[in-house]
Write a structure and sequence with these properties.
Elements lengths: L14 H11 L7 E6 L6 E6 L15 H8 L3 E8 L9 H10 L3 E5 L5 E4 L21 H13 L17 H12 E4 L9 E4 L8 E7 L2 E4 L7 E4 L8 E7 L3
Parallel strand pairs: 3-4
Antiparallel strand pairs: 1-2, 1-3, 4-5, 6-11, 7-8, 7-11, 8-9, 9-10
Amino acid sequence: MDYHLEDFLGLGNTDPIKKSLKASLSSKDREVCGVFYFKDDSLDYDFLQLDNENHKDKNYFTIRDKRFYDLYINDRIVSLFHSHTIDYDEAPSKIDIEVAESLSLPSMIFSVKTKEYNLFFPSSHKPRPLEKRIFIPYFQDCVSFIKDYFYLNFNIKMQDSVLNWARKRKDPNNFLVDQVDKMFREVSFESIKKHDLILFKPSIQPFIHLAIYLGSNEILHHPIGSYPKKELFTPQELNKVYKICRYKDL
């Protein structure tokens, strides 16, 4: 999913993600750091680049900016962000994981080397309520919505099994299906029941869309550029379905 090189129609506000990309590519030999944060009204988000005050090691970053602490104290941080230099891929280091866990915040990493993002959700992170959450590519989209649904309803922490919640630039649908197959098993439409996961084929957008079946011919999902919502799901919708899956432990 190439949010940062093209304007994808209807994908919501991708400008903050593009800002993080441009900042990272402007400093290939030294880590860039910052945060994605909710604006004052919480109806939109932005990217704030912060000074990296670690001048001893190009592959580490240090933040002492008061703005970070103000955002953190007021629960307005969507995610931490930093880049990896030309020497490393996007996988989080041991220190990256420890920092995210200690702050209970997601951590996004962009690799200058691979041009890929990694979005790590620590086990200590508690998701925001599902209702009235704004759509944010990567952070609050249909994929993270499924993760948060199972956490809030069953205390199932999918982030303990999946270390990267960012869709890949190359073959994003195959990558997503592979991740789903590790945690879910396919079931037939005839046996569908509440809490099953529905994967919809790409339509207007080139990406697979995820939804939860609520029973009584209803689904719950987080559409692009919208709040999460319930909608009717009837047998006539079957031609739009890629497959239906059930969490392996339910």
